Amino acid sequence: QVQLQESGGGSVQSGGSLRLSCAVSGYGHRGYCVGWFRQAPGKDREGVAGIDSYGTTDYAESVKGRFTISADNAKNTFILQVNSLKPEDTAMYYCAADGPCGTRWYIAEYNYWGQGTQVTVSS
Predict the structure, then answer these.
(1) Nearest to 34 by CA among 2, 17, 57
(2) Residue range 84-105: mean pLDDT, rounded
């Protein structure tokens, strides 16, 4: 059974940083496409960053230069480093696995999702 568990969320002031982690277990494929998504109250879920097993990464325009996605393959963990946070980054952040790769990574059609970790940014 594939399970994803996010951690690292919290409340920070504008300009602050957080390190979000996604621990994946039970995923038996060597190749992967993993995405980080976020959803604010009353808004649609949006793709924030994606990474594949080749190390290719991509980001939503709104977070480029501020967020970094990475993979620790030895630990089956995916990291989203979020810097220079803004109040509009406030949302529940989810990681997802086994989904669209390449240019379609931001489409929320992944087979496995975590429960989410809350990020709140105050001005």
Answers:
(1) 57
(2) 94
